[in-house]
Write a structure and sequence with these properties.
Blueprint: H1 2-5, E1 7-12, E2 24-31, H2 34-46, E3 51-53, E4 60-62, E5 67-74, E6 81-84, E7 88-92, H3 97-106, E8 109-110, H4 122-128, E9 131-132, E10 135-136, E11 141-148, E12 151-156, E13 174-181, E14 183-184, H5 187-204, H6 224-230, E15 237-238, E16 241-243, E17 251-253, H7 259-275, E18 286-289, E19 293-295
Parallel strand pairs: 2-5, 3-5, 4-18
Antiparallel strand pairs: 1-2, 6-7, 7-13, 8-14, 9-10, 11-12, 11-13, 15-16, 16-17, 18-19
The structure holds flavin-adenine dinucleotide (FAD).
Flavin-adenine dinucleotide (FAD) binds near residues 174 and 175.
Length: about 300
């Protein structure tokens, strides 16, 4: 097992995330084939060990105590990208989404441009139904190969119950490969669109700092960034974490930031927005609990 799935023990997880906080995992398996993924999942199931799938960790807070289970990461063929036929982009679940966008652009395929600045993996982005600019992955996903401890199955988009930043993918399932159905487009037009979207990001979101993208989902008809800013929290700091002065729905990690600082700051933002008469905000970011695996962050109850 250790050789086939590339298992390592006591591995720091902070470097696998964009916010770079949190403790180590008991074990990490780097899987390069469908069979390797299933084998790693079976290894964990045999030991009753919890499992966490981690892509680029770009929407993930790892607890300061780390994780007493097996983290699965994808590499090799399962992070590759290729154009299949006239209009399909094949991506391993571990492939970088921005790289997939660039590959599609080079091949003159349009439809995935909105993902240019979403710094996750194709598998993580499908599992989260990531999106931007009124588009999301549900609009281009054609199929996904999902691995669990019993093997693999190919499912269609409609089998995944894809909603706003949510799907039916379970914590012990790995999106190991996906097929995006795109459309032929003019490479020059695609490039112009990509240049525009990237420039927009650079001017509206924090740059050169550790973040994990949107902290909270947007409530119906409003934006969490606007609500947090209106509550006077732009630039507000707790421990090593602060609400971004550039975009209030981002948390920036400073020196010595801990996961506990991030959670405390999320609690504070929710409480202040509520006290100001706003809605209860819901976390978009996922959280790796030391014993249970990935779920919602442990935020304080709020009325
Ligand atoms: C600067 C910045 C900008 C961002 N902008 C956006 C944006 O515009 N829109 C948006 O939607 N998000 C955005 N994000 C958040 C993030 O990039 C997306 O949510 C992305 O889809 C997460 O992918 P990941 O591979 O990093 O997943 P991770 O953060 O590693 O994991 C997130 C969740 O996906 C699961 N997961 C990961 N890989 C797999 C897999 N192969 N199979 C099954 N489950 C898996 C994890 O278990 C976890 O539950 C941004 C983040 C940053 C840092």
């Amino acid at each position: 097992m250790a050789e086939q799935a590339g298992i390592r023990e006591n591995v720091p997880l902070a470097p696998f995330t964009s916010i770079k906080v949190g403790g180590p995992a008991d074990a990490v398996a780097v899987c390069t084939s469908f069979a390797g993924v299933t084998e790693a999942l079976r290894w964990a199931a045999d030991r009753n060990a919890p499992v966490a799938v981690v892509g680029k960790g770009s929407n993930l807070i790892v607890d300061d105590a780390g994780f007493r289970g097996l983290v699965i990461r994808l590499a090799g063929r399962l992070s590759s990208i290729s154009v299949r036929g006239a209009d399909t982009l094949w991506c391993g679940g571990g492939a970088s989404l921005p790289r997939a966008v660039q590959r599609a652009a080079t091949a003159g395929l349009t439809g995935l441009e909105f993902g240019a600045s979403i710094p996750g993996t194709a598998g993580g982005a499908v599992a989260m139904n990531a999106g931007a600019y009124s588009s999301d992955l549900s609009q281009v996903l054609e199929w996904a190969v999902i691995c669990d401890a019993n093997g693999r199955r190919k499912v269609g988009r409609d089998d995944l119950a894809m909603g706003y930043r949510t799907t039916s993918v379970q914590g012990n399932e790995v999106v190991a490969a996906v097929g995006f159905r795109l459309a032929p487009g003019d490479p020059a037009d695609i490039k112009t669109t990509l240049d525009g979207l990237r420039t927009h990001r650079r001017t509206t979101q924090p740059q050169g700092v550790r973040t994990f993208g949107s902290v909270f989902t947007n409530p119906e008809g409003d934006s969490s960034g606007r609500l947090i800013e209106a509550a006077g929290l732009k630039g507000f700091t707790l421990g090593g974490a602060r609400i971004s002065p550039v975009h209030a729905n981002f948390i920036e990690a400073g020196k010595d930031c801990r996961a506990a600082d991030v959670i405390a700051l999320m609690d504070e933002a929710r409480r202040r927005v509520r006290d100001a008469g706003g809605p209860v905000l819901h976390a978009e970011v996922r959280y790796l609990h030391p014993e249970w695996g990935i779920g919602a962050p442990p935020l304080a109850e709020i009325a």
